[in-house]
Amino acid sequence: MSPALAQPPTVHLVDGSLYVFRAWHSMPDEFLDVDGHPVNAVHGYTRFLCELLERVQPEHIAVAFDASLTSSFRNAIYPSYKANRELPPPDLERQFVQCRAITEALGIHLMIDHSFEADDLIGSTVWNLRALGWRSVIVSADKDFGQLLGEHDEQWDYARGLRWGPAGVHDKLGVHPHQVADYLALCGDSVDNIPGVPGVGAKTAAALLSHFGNLDTLLERVDEVAFLRLRGAASCAAKLRQHAEQARLYRQLTRIALDAPVVSTPDRLQRRRGGHDRLERLSEQLGFGTFTRSRLRALLRH
């Protein structure tokens, strides 16, 4: 974009579940609510959210949470999807509910759905608002989001203080944003229990997509793979032939959906002011200290 032109309006889209899990694993378990239940994840998540709001002061923001660990549309396509993950224990499940309550009390738009994951909710919002001339900043470390980045968009790994746009996706993975879903389908994603094509690692997947452009073209021209300057090229070609249908299936899992039920106009994502009474009740219930309470009150005023 030319320096003379104004930057497009910005919406911040936060991968809320990621930061709840991080707080759950990093915060000591000494924090209890008035009923004696652990609230370490809530305290850590609230600190993160306060810091983000204080630092960025976003006018438009949404936080997406996962509620579809076993009910996502991907589970119907591939029952083993995320089967390697344990369900959150009751103490953490309770804290997720409390984190969502804090998010809404701060006037932030909450996104959650039992069929679509947080990635899909964020992706669909990016897609809808891009058509209206908005840019998105996705606050998450998850590599899957690379496929969403358009010319003006950014991903922000908040904990590490790293930000990147479309070019940064290529620097990290060796593929362009529009190739990320194909890349993950080929080399797999152990986090989501997607095996990928046997024998195709990250470097090979990137090299194949650099040459062929996309998964469909690669599979259509798979006979050419044996002649590429790749280690084990003949074996790779054979594996691709054998697992072509699985690769196409895996791409249905790795591709972020852009048709999830989300708001289609930015006005719904504008931060609201006011929820003072609700925030005070939550602060009391969760045992927040004086400093956290003062931060929360200030955020409702600004």
Notes on the protein architecture:
With 302 residues, this protein is of the alpha/beta class. The protein has 2 domains: 10-172 and 257-301, 5'-nuclease (Rossmann fold, 3-Layer(aba) Sandwich), CATH 3.40.50.1010; 177-254, 5' to 3' exonuclease, C-terminal subdomain (DNA polymerase, domain 1, Orthogonal Bundle). The chain is 46% helix and 8% strand. It contains 13 helices and 6 strands. The protein has helices at 16-26, 40-56, 73-77, 90-105, 118-130, 166-173, 180-187, 202-212, 215-220, 233-242, 244-254, 276-286, 290-301; strands spanning 10-15, 61-64, 109-111, 135-139, 154-157, 162-164. It has a 6-stranded mixed β-sheet, sandwiched between helices. The mean pLDDT is 94.
Give the percentage of residues in beta strands: 5-15%
Shape: elongated
Level-1 CATH class name of the largest domain: Alpha Beta
CATH superfamily annotation of the largest domain: 5'-nuclease
**Might you state the CATH topology name of the largest domain?**
Rossmann fold
Count of discrete alpha- or pi-helical segments spanning 4 or more residues = 13
Helical proportion, percent range: 40-55%
What's the architecture of the largest domain, going by CATH?
Answer: 3-Layer(aba) Sandwich
Which strand order do you get reading across the main beta sheet? 3-2-1-4-5-6
Number of strands: 6
Structural class: alpha/beta
For the terminal residues, how far apart are their CA atoms? 30 Å
| Global Rg | 21 Å
Largest sheet: 6 strands, mixed
Give helix and strand order, one letter per element, not per position. Answer: EHHEHHEHEEEHHHHHHHH
**Can you tell me the number of structural domains?**
2
